[in-house]
Amino acid sequence: MSTKPLTDSPAWKALQSHHSEVAGLHLRELFAADPGRGDNLTAEACGIFLDYSKNRVTDKTLELLLRLAEERGLRERIDAMFRGDKINITENRAVLHTALRAPRGQKIVVDGEDVVPAVHEVLDKMASFADRIRSGQWLGHTGKKIRNVINIGIGGSDLGPVMAYEALKFYSDRALRFEFVSNVDSDDFAEAVHGLDPAETLFVISSKTFTTLETMTNAHTAREWVLRGLGGDESAIAKHFVAVSTNAEKVREFGIDTANMFGFWDWVGGRYSMDSAIGLSTMVAVGPANFRALLDGFREMDEHFRTAPFGQNLPVIMGLLAVWYGDFFDAQTVAVLPYEQYLKRFPAYLQQLTMESNGKSITLDGQHVDYNTGAIYWGEPGTNGQHSFYQLIHQGTHLIPCDFIGFAKTLNPIGRHHDILMANMFAQAEALAFGKTAEEVRAEGTREDLVPHRVFEGNRPSNTILAEVVDPKTLGKLVALYEHSVFTQGAIWNINPFDQWGVELGKVLAQRIIPELESREVPTLNHDSSTNALITRYRRMNQ
Ligand code: G6Q
Asked: 495-511, pLDDT tens digit by residue?
């Protein structure tokens, strides 16, 4: 593995001079020069098709990006992750979300212990719990069946479960209602339980640490809500609360029977945990068989990432293209545009996965980077975005690479909807790439003064990801595709995608401000003048 700074590496330097040669090329020219481009610049693995031909790359660009991956030791880094090396060096942890989907019998050793049997033990325990809830066998304190399942968690303990629930709603048990409470804002809790009967409600308290302020505040509120609704009998807690955590002691302290605790391990990062016990609500919603299919999907993509040559490796290609735009075109953001309503929370999920992972500016060697790292990810499902922010992507001043995600089949075949939806996706990618010239606008008889307004420059790059249908397995593949693309980017940038120290400072400051807001006495404030004034005003307005 190269220890040279990234910007000194030969492939990087070659990419820099190559960029100045190709940056001016238009996708129109690239397609005209190679009639086979739309077939050639594609890759397919485990049922996921990636068309990356509408990117501002030539064969030479791809060759250099692949060389960069080799030079930066991507292969060794992939092997190290799958092997269970402690690649999260700032927390001295292995990074083994891939072990969560390892088949029974595979051996992955961390600190001298094979972790795979424990993974399957938890999965089996989750399955038996999910079956009991789904079959109505698990009864609440007063003997009623559970009809409402509320996941309380935040960040990695929320975004994966809520995204997966929405993505797989078609497969979910419609007799059960699922809610997800994450924000410490009481509005979130109040609305989730509005109109619900505590006797029919089960809370899944999902927290790796079981100390997170938001989750613990919501969990205590839930506890009071249940006790108030069920006559104050503490023994009700066991029937209405289960926990997903690595911290048995804290779970016990909260009053949850550790027999109803589903464990995971420090080698699972929060944002990589939706396929661990953190997916308990997902499993209750869609059933154990579908959850296992989800894991199979993850595993297929893991195997592809681990073994495929980089030139045909979907996550590697996507990761390298992200580096190409971020570092050489200075693109600040990536839009993720799923043409599938069930994936409406996928962009929000990806925001954490990508931005908490690669939003770093210090290298593994402790040096400040002198290149761009993780981009801002954002998006909305198509076609809604078309009627709002696509204007800026088409005609604004920013270069925004887009990931279009679509499916050949719909789960709800009604009339012409699906063809119309997909026609829009293909059309947007086409319009972004090829645009419309002034000559074309004029030829339509447009008034001369309007011509510049109606020109589409084009040359806006995109990937198109096409799969058959949204099902559990495909969702697993899609999430793993992005997980490994994020990994690829982190490896090139020589940063640690697996810590998140950047979330700490605000948390600490909030702890200092809470008593200043709550105190009956006027507190002595020692913040900056803006924070002092805001706190003072809030206290006055809150009287
Ligand atoms: C994710 C982060 C973070 C974490 C939440 C919740 O990678 O670590 O989003 O998931 O802060 O933490 P707990 O699960 O410990 O409550």
From this structure: 999 999 999 999 999 99
292-305 per-position pLDDT tens digit? 999 999 999 999 99
Whole-number Å distance, alpha carbon 185 to ligand 1 midpoint, is 17
Q: Which residues are catalytic?
A: 356, 387, 507
Nearest CA to ligand 1 atom 11: 155
- The CA distance from 232 to 234, in Å, is 6
In the chain the first and final C-alpha atoms are separated, in Å, by 61
Of all protein residues, the one whose alpha carbon is nearest to atom 8 of ligand 1 is 270
Phi, psi of 121 (to 5 degrees): -60, -45
Place of tokens 């706190």: 535
pLDDT of residue 271: 98
Q: Dump pLDDT digits (tens) for 253-273.
A: 999 999 999 999 999 999 999
Q: Is pLDDT at 366 greater than 60 in this prediction?
A: yes
How far, in Å, CA of 236 to CA of 456, rounded? 63
Question: Cα separation of 279 and 291, whole Å?
Answer: 8
The mean pLDDT of 151-155, rounded to a whole number, is 98
Q: Which residues line ligand 1 (CB under 6 A)?
A: 154-157, 207-209, 212, 215, 269-271, 356, 500
Summary count for the chain: helices (H), strands (E): 23, 13
Pick from 464, 478, 487: nearest CA to 354:
487
Residues near 62 by beta carbon (within 8 Å), at least 6 away in sequence: 41, 311
Residue 35 CA to residue 31 CA, distance in Å, equals 6
CA of 270 to the centre of ligand 1 (A): 5
DSSP state of 102: P
What single-letter amino acid sits at 329? F
* pTM as predicted: 0.98
What's the rounded Cα separation, in Å, for the pair 169 and 163?
A: 10
Q: Are strands 462-467 and 48-51 parallel, antiparallel or unpaired?
A: antiparallel
For the stretch 184-205, pLDDT in tens is 999 999 999 999 999 999 999 9
- The identity of residue 22, as a single letter, is V
Q: How confident is the model at residue 164 (pLDDT cuts 50, 70, 90)?
A: very high
Pocket-testing residue among 90, 208, 272, ligand 1, by greatest number of atoms within 8 A of Cβ: 208
490, 358 contact by CB (below 8 A):
yes
pLDDT band at 543 (very low <50, low <70, confident <90, very high): confident
Q: Please state at what angle helix 314-323 crosses helix 59-71, rounded to 10 degrees.
A: 100
| 16 vs 335: CA distance, rounded Å | 24
Distances 110 to 115, 298, 306, 459 between C-alpha atoms, Å = 7, 21, 19, 47
